[in-house]
Amino acid sequence: MRAHDPGEKHRVSTSLELLFDLCFVVAVSQASAGLRAALAGGTSTAAPGRLCAVAAGGL
């Protein structure tokens, strides 16, 4: 696989880039859903770990 020049006009994302983006979105979504469930369920011991997972996903 060859690298693309970011300055290239009409640059199109590769299938691999789109797959990575999709996996990232699903991972952040799952982590945030787990955080919401932990906070709603009152299990405060799991909440800090979930919060770190959501924060790390957003970087």
Structure description:
This protein has 59 residues and is mainly alpha-helical. It is 64% helix and 0% strand. The two termini are 26 Å apart. It has helices at 15-41, 47-57. It has one domain. It is built from 2 helices and no strands. Helix 1 (15-41) packs antiparallel against helix 2 (47-57). The protein is rod-shaped, with a radius of gyration of 17 Å.
Give the averaged pLDDT, no decimals. Answer: 76
Structural class of the secondary elements? mainly alpha
Number of spatially distinct domains: 1
Please report which band the strand proportion falls in: under 5%, 5-15%, 15-25%, 25-35%, 35-45% or over 45%. Answer: under 5%
| End-to-end C-alpha gap | 26 Å
Total count of strands: 0
Residue share in helices?
Answer: 55-70%
Rg over CA atoms = 17 Å
Largest sheet: none
Number of helices: 2
